[in-house]
Each structure stands twice: as structure tokens, then as C-alpha cells.
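It would be a great kindness if you could assist me with a short task in structural biology. The matter concerns a single protein, recorded as an amino acid sequence and a row of C-alpha cells. Kindly check, if you would, that the fold set down in the C-alpha cells agrees with what the sequence suggests. Thank you for your consideration; the sequence and its C-alpha cells are set out here:
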Amino acid sequence: MVLYRLAEHMSSQGSGQKRSAIGAANSSLPLQWMGEGDLPVRKILILKFSSLGDVIQALPVAAGLRRRWPSAEIHWMAFGPYRDLLANHPAIDRFVEFPRRRETPGGLFRDLARCVAAVRQERYDLLLDMQGLLRSGLLCFLSGAKRRIGPWNGREGSILLYRERVMPPPPPAQERYLAFLRYLRVPAGPPDYGLKAEPLDIPGLRKGAYVVLHPYARWKTKLWPWRYYGELVRSLPHLSFVVMGIGPWFPLEEKNVVDLRGPIPLQRMMALLGNAAATIGPDSGPAHLAAALGVPTLMLFGPTDWRESAAVGENVRVLSAGTTCAPCWRTTCPQPRPVACLSDIPPARVRQELEEICAESLQMAR
């Protein structure tokens, strides 16, 4: 069993082991365009459509751009479910929805054509494509923006559509997004997510008096065995738990559990996570959201690599069983003992970490 405290791990690496991540240009633009140049920046568009965890990790880019160009108008384009997260962000002036898939290709084409027309009308000075896929690259190419910057390792041929490209640094994943700020010579600073949880309005729940369990993820191979959650809450009868998320139902009916599973608005999710004493769950968007809100977060890692994908923050801990087959990045497990990378993390070990987290929270509150 291996425990990683993310803040300690990142500080132990030392700055000498990190590449500068100042990207190279994929164009013949004059050199001054690589720095401040003579081009005024009045309007900026960020392309990062999904997913929840990735959008959250990219949020410090908006705050950095606001520091660099305080009077600029900053827009962010993403899928509709992230409207509440982005439209209320202090560094973002406008949320722009990118069309999702339609039932017919014709409907999708019409939506995309309207999207391109709307983007061109804005006459952006700077466009950052942090999605790095063909659809975002095409939008970048057709945008008419004066500077079109994308990732050096964009996929699906998108690298052919940028005027400038940013070299990706070593993990964690958030560094891919912060590299855009370094490329633009934005002064360094601690990541600013700009998130604030609304007051809690759920009867029976008090701020800092419960632990959130989020047991779900898109990959089945990311799931800690569901029976373990029951063992965990039964072993801590003095703690209150809230279980939330969308996925297959499993019994968790102990008296110290409030069951709020099912679809909930993003703002309500932020309130639940942001007012919790701690959050426990697999590598998923809500864990990244909790960490960005400053909540002590315990992430359970199996098939994905915590060095690449773990949430970033002072209060993030990672548990991994350390099996030889992990990380495998597989959505199905071919091993004779399926998903041993997670089933080998016993509830007693998670309970120990949770008790330490709660004890530290009490000391800080005094």
C-alpha cells in the first residue's frame, strides 16, 4: 500500500527536474509576437470543452490571463453542463456553449456553422485551444483570431491548424494548461481556481460536519469495490457521510449516511463538496472539484497514474495499492483477479487516512 501526499511529492521534485515548457512556435511570425509584442490584447477566447476534471484543472489559466491583461474581455467555450462553473467565474466575462452531438449530421453541421460565425464576429485577438482535438482545432483555424495557439501534441491532426504551439511539460496534467501561461510570459503565481462554494442549504447538514463519498467514475476499472464503502461508514459511526454521484445503485443504508445520489446541479454539487470536512472517491471530476475548493481530498487510484491525473492542492492525498499492472490506462481489466489495483486498498487503510484528515481539520479549526 502506498500513500502519496501531493503537496509533498511536488515540492520534493525540485525545480531543476522540470522543463521550462516555453513552447515553440509553429509559424514564421515575427519574434515579438512570442512575447508582449505590439499587438494589443482586448479579447481572448479559451477552448476547453470537457471533461469536468480537465476544465477545473485548466481554470487557473483564466485567472493568469486576467492578471496579465486585466482590462481584456475573456470568454470560455465549453459544453453546456459546465455553464454554472464558468459563467460565474470571476476571471471569465462570458461563457460560450459549444454544441454537443445532434441526432442527425445536418443538425450538428448547422450548429457548428452558427458557432464558427459567432466566433468570427467577436474578432478575438488571442485564442487558446486547450482541448487539442480536430473540432477545436478547426474552430481555432476558422476563428479569424490574430493569435491561434494550441498544444504541441494536439491530436486528430489539430496541430496543422495552429499558428503557434506550446510544448507540453512533464506531469501532472495541470502543467499542460499552465504551460500556456508560461508561453505568454504571464507572471508565475500559485494556481488560482477562482471557485467559491455557496452556503449549504440542505436540512441536517452543517458545514464541516460530514464527509462526502463519491463512489462513481466513467470507467468501471476506476471503481473502489462498493461493499468497501459500507465497511468504511460502519467502522466510523461517529462520523456523518453524504453519498453522491450518478451510477448503478448499491446499498448504503447505514444511519450515519445521507443518500443524495442522482443528478444534481453543478452549483449544488459545489456547495456539498465545498462545505464538507473531506471527500473520498476515485479519479473523477468531483474529486478535482473538491480539491480546487480547498477541501481535504482522498483519491483512490487504480488504472490511471496519480502522477499524471491526481488533483493538485495542499490537501490532496492519494492511495494506490501499488500492483505491478498499474497504471494500465485500461477501461476493462484483463487480470485473473479483476481490478486488484483498487480492491487491494482495504477499508481499514482508508479509515486511517480519513481519521488523520479529520484530526488535522480539528487542529486547524482551533
